[in-house]
Design goal:
This is Trypsin-like serine proteases, typically periplasmic, contain C-terminal PDZ domain. The protein is of the alpha+beta class. The protein folds into three domains: 63-144 and 245-250, Trypsin-like serine proteases (Thrombin, subunit H), CATH 2.40.10.10; 159-237, Beta Barrel (Thrombin, subunit H); 269-381, Nuclear Transport Factor 2, Chain: A. 24% of the residues lie in helices and 37% in strands. It has a six-stranded antiparallel beta barrel with strand order 1-2-3-6-5-4. Strands 7-8-9-12-11-10 form a six-stranded antiparallel β-barrel. Strands 13-14-15-16 form a four-stranded antiparallel beta sheet. A hairpin with a 5-residue loop joins strand 4 (108-112) and strand 5. The longest helix is centred in the N-terminal third of the chain and has 29 residues, at 6-34. The protein is globular.
Length: 383
């Protein structure tokens, strides 16, 4: 039998121990790496956690619901006919930003709010080269205006919301992205420079409406033009507009702008029917968004007296969503309109289950202190 070299045995044993120790160390390292997120230290400072949205990001429905109330429909009588456009409340002086091509050379215009109220506005400034104008509505003074993105520009890929009144349909919202920047166009008497190109279409009647940041609700621009039949729109950056409107607001071209009585002249039957329909739609938009205070504010004083707010709110707490399936104007007289609707409601039962129900409702909409209100209403379940 050959003799065993002691040195060889010791070397083999030592190697085995080293291999075992190395394996154990690797296992510990893997375990630690598997259960941790490792970030390399930055020479510029500590790495902060990356959030998908900022802390100020808001829900899409909330942004639309809050800002639609501050968007108006403008009607202007010009030599060649009636022009319609949009605008939005810019400050606490009751000043509304719109496009200059909307107001033309008119001195005054009709301003319709989302609740159907109509005021007279006076043009206190209009651009010669930049397509922007400012309309003062004294009755809107003191009201909380839209939030303005004063210190930043939008970038390609930013998500946006365009609000306006295409074809006179108030409270219309379209979503898209900034698909291009620094676009230049010549349309009519105006030279547009540095426009935002957006994937949200701008239709007739939407000109002058605001372009909002999808996540903060801040105004990024003034919607001004669209490509016919295409999902392309163009918006003037609000940073271009601010120097002009701030000067006009401080130095209005019209020396005196007096409040009106809340309506301009006599509302025609067609206008009353349209405004009444919008008011009913606004009511259910508020209900859908859980804005029960806003919905309650649309009721007439007699209705509010008979049904206090807490009782009104309790009646909708189990309503998860509402959709108007059919809306018809049944009758219109001198100062009121009757609106009939069929609604689909997703409701929560007392047992916590969800069910879909259908109701037929009729509302009487009329003027109260110069504002349209839901004066009466009845509803019955049809299935």
């Amino acid at each position: 039998m050959k003799s065993i070299n002691v040195n060889t045995v010791l070397a083999v044993m030592l190697s085995g121990l080293l291999i075992m120790a190395g394996g154990f160390g690797l296992a510990r390292i893997y375990d630690n790496m598997h259960n941790q997120v490792v970030a390399e230290a930055s020479k510029l400072g500590p790495i902060e956690e990356n959030h998908s949205e900022s802390a100020k990001s808001q829900d899409l429905k909330s942004i639309i619901a809050e800002n639609q109330k501050l968007v108006v429909c403008l009607e202007v009588e010009l030599d060649y006919g009636k022009v319609q456009g949009s605008g939005f409340l810019y400050n606490r002086q009751g000043d509304v930003i719109t496009n200059a091509h909307v107001v033309g050379d008119a001195r005054t215009c009709r301003v319709k709010l989302s609740d159907g109220t109509v005021y007279q506005g006076t043009v206190i400034g209009r651009g010669e080269q930049i397509d922007v104008a400012l309309v003062r509505v004294p009755e809107l003074a003191g009201k909380e205006p839209m939030k303005i993105a004063r210190d930043r520009m939008a970038e390609v890929g930013d998500e946006v919301i365009a609000l306006g009144s295409p074809l006179g349909l108030q409270n219309t919202a379209t979503t898209g992205i900034i698909s291009g920047v620094n676009r230049d166009l010549d349309i009519g008497d105006y030279h547009y420079k540095g426009l935002y190109q957006i994937s949200a279409p701008i239709s007739h009647g939407s000109s002058g409406g605001p372009l909002l940041d999808r996540h903060t609700g801040e105004v990024l621009g003034v919607n001004s033009a669209g490509a016919e039949g295409e999902n392309i729109g163009f918006s003037i950056p609000i940073t271009q507009v601010l120097p002009l409107v701030e000067n006009w607001s401080k130095n209005p071209s019209t020396a005196s702008v007096q409040p009106t009585t809340g309506t301009v002249g006599k509302i025609s039957g067609k206008e009353l029917a349209t405004a009444a329909s919008y008011l009913v739609e606004d009511f259910y938009t508020c209900v859908n968004n859980g804005d029960y205070v806003g919905a309650f504010a649309l009721l007439g004083s007699d209705w509010q007296a008979k049904q206090p707010y807490e009782k009104f709110r309790a009646g909708y707490l189990n309503t998860l969503s509402v959709r108007i399936e059919d809306l018809r104007v049944v009758a219109v007289n001198q100062d009121s309109a009757e609106i009939s609707i069929i609604i689909e409601a997703l409701e929560r039962t007392n047992q916590g289950e969800e069910r879909t129900s259908y109701y037929q409702a009729t509302y009487q909409v009329g003027l109260e202190n110069g504002k349209l209100k839901l004066l009466k209403g009845t509803a019955s379940k049809i299935r």
